[in-house]
């Protein structure tokens, strides 16, 4: 309870104490019937300068550089906005999509520019110019509502597309890329000024929508705030940390306590879940949760949680192999993706009725930083077994079905992005290192009670890469 007291204003009023106690009791009640925390003997983890064989390193270099090619080619050079999706060969998409950018993909793209500059895939000065162009556009020209941005935009103008919402989570993923770029180009005054302006302008308190604790999914001018709230475990952890750490419009740690943490057990793994596998990946692409555990019940280690979720997900896919023989030891993975029937937010466990044997490479790709012992062989097998059908200009297609022979014609920016960032964190930990240098994030982690469980990082030095900068 000391940690919770410190996170509130210093005035020791009875009202604040009562609220603090109530929040803690509420969380205890929510978790009262849940299974115990992870069986750590079942969990192996990696990330950050992992020792890779020469062939694994060669494969990841090829996959990562192809993934970066998407952000290089599918970004408008005048705005920095990244297309939501493109054809696997880079050709023009249908008219409805060909000019539609995703702000989440743009956040991944800003981070990709830092990776490319570090790995010499792109001249550092050129990467700096692209970052500056993007930040200036968001700071000065893109329409926003109290600092929040529309989910989809015209990549040439920044205007709202598809009557999309002002999105809280997609703005958060954009901010993650912006703050990563601010840290990586920390010697550049203009990048620092623009990035700080964009972040400080976001009114996180407003997105509480009068609720007082959990954030809304977004807002539309036609209907006001969306009814769904970020009140269950999801990829929203990065959103809440950005909100708690904001130097201008921060929310209290009561919001971190307010969302539920529902545990399930599958295949011998007990973990918190709430949807498709990507919810275990996106926040971790930037936030280094390794060896950090909440200082209050249920003392959750979110990195270990994602490790367990990935291993349970593989077991889940293998259990479906009798129904869908295309699933095998190294061909597996289901997360939100394209399908023959359109985009589906599927996953499991538990079983989603829509599952039809489709494999989504980003399921394994986004978990490279957690479980390379099972995800690397899966990705390599997919490339070796299916070749150019699933692996091309931008790496893997978004989805394919090894049982029926269907292959999706597109790649999706956020799926390409999570694969690239997860691979980089596995290889060097650089994205974690750059993002965690932002003092606002360290402050947020401290406020919500996430503490290092030991002084030494379990997974090795973050200076593994000879090009790593301190």
How would you describe the overall organization of this protein?
- The protein is mainly α and 470 residues long.
- It has 2 domains: 1-33; 50-452, Glycosyltransferase.
- Helix content is 40%, strand content 8%.
- The protein contains 15 helices and 13 strands.
- A 3-stranded antiparallel β-sheet has the order 4-5-6. A two-stranded antiparallel sheet has the order 1-12. A two-stranded antiparallel ribbon has the order 2-3.
- Helix 4 runs antiparallel to helix 5, helix 4 runs parallel beside helix 6 (168-184) and helix 6 (168-184) crosses helix 14 (430-436).
- The protein is globular and about 55 Å long.
- The two termini are 36 Å apart.
- The relative contact order is 0.16.
- Residues 1-45 and 455-470 have low confidence and may be disordered.
Task: List its salient traits.
470 residues; mainly alpha; Glycosyltransferase; 2 domains; three-stranded antiparallel β-sheet; two-stranded antiparallel ribbon; 13 strands; 40% helix; globular; disordered N terminus
Give the arrangement of secondary structure elements.
Layout: H1 2-6, H2 14-31, H3 54-73, E1 85-87, E2 100-102, H4 103-118, H5 124-140, E3 152-154, E4 166-167, H6 168-184, H7 189-201, E5 218-220, E6 224-225, H8 237-245, H9 254-258, E7 263-266, E8 269-272, E9 292-294, H10 302-319, H11 361-365, H12 372-386, E10 391-392, E11 395-396, E12 410-412, H13 413-427, H14 430-436, H15 439-448, E13 450-452
Antiparallel strand pairs: 1-12, 2-3, 4-5, 5-6, 7-8, 9-13, 10-11
Helix pairs in contact: 3-4, 3-13, 4-5, 4-6, 4-13, 5-7, 6-7, 6-14, 8-15
